[in-house]
Amino acid sequence: MLKVIAQDFIKPEHIATVAPLYRELVERTRQEPLCISYALYVDEKDPGHFVFIEEWPDRAALDAHCSTEHFRRLVPLIDQYQRAPGTYLLMDAFR
Amino acid sequence: MLKVIAQDFIKPEHIATVAPLYRELVERTRQEPLCISYALYVDEKDPGHFVFIEEWPDRAALDAHCSTEHFRRLVPLIDQYQRAPGTYLLMDAFR
After folding, report:
1. Strand A49-56 and strand A2-10: pairing?
2. What confidence category does residue B21 fall into, taking pLDDT thresholds of 50, 70 and 90?
3. Which keywords appear in this protein's UniProt record, sorted alphabetically (chains A, B) (predicted)?
4. CA-based max dimension of chain A
5. What pLDDT band is residue B71 in, cutting at 50, 70 and 90?
6. Are A47 and A15 in contact, with CB atoms under 8 Å apart?
7. How many domains does chain B have?
8. Whole-number Å distance between alpha carbons of A30 and A47
9. Shortest CB distance from B41 goes to which of A22, A40, A94?
10. For position A44, which CATH number holds?
11. Interface pTM (ipTM) of the complex?
């Protein structure tokens, strides 16, 4: 199991622009056969700070996600409106 | 619904010390009646970087969690072994 937190920082004037792109990304990703969970959240203190919490069976499944048509099309469109580079964190379950 | 990411940074020589404290904190928190989900993860690149992903019905439920006996007893014990201050992020679901 691989848990992922991916964070995006969007310019305030472009939050409405990216919203439908995020919506499509979430919908299409959830249809990927290897996707266990994929949800998007917004920082209560910063409406341009978007946080994905994801779960994949393994690194290969995450890599496959990053190679899908929807990821390769939508992520660069979203990234045009960043105010700072995105971050991501790959984690294992604590045992 | 309130989603929370809480991150702790533990000194490498104390990871084994905090492990049973984290285990007890997770077990007891999951028994709280208002806890929707509460899971602990470890950064793949940093074994002292612990990440809680939590879900609560609302802020009052999170505040109640922070007032429990187990939270007030275990968190200060864990925090003794921090190498940097913990962080937390409160989020709403994206719609």
Report:
1. antiparallel
2. very high
3. Monooxygenase, Oxidoreductase
4. 42
5. very high
6. yes
7. 1
8. 23
9. A94
10. 3.30.70.100
11. 0.96
Q: Is there a contact between B91 and A5 if contact means CB atoms under 8 Å apart? A: no
Closest residue, chain A, to B6 (C-alpha): A5
Determine whether the interchain pair A94/B42 forms a contact, defined as Cβ–Cβ distance below 8 Å: yes
Amino acid of residue A94? F
Give the minimum alpha-carbon distance from A93 to chain B in angstroms, rounded to a whole number. 4
pLDDT (tens place) for every residue of chain A, 95 residues total: 999 999 999 999 999 999 999 999 999 999 999 999 999 999 999 999 999 999 999 999 999 999 999 999 999 999 999 999 999 999 999 98
Contact A89/B at CB under 8 A: yes
B33 — pLDDT class (breaks 50, 70, 90)? very high
Domain extent, residue A76, equals 2-91
Q: Specify whether the CB–CB gap between B82 and B10 falls below 8 A.
A: yes
What is the DSSP secondary structure assignment for residue A57, as one 8-state letter? S
Local structure of B16: helix, strand or coil: helix
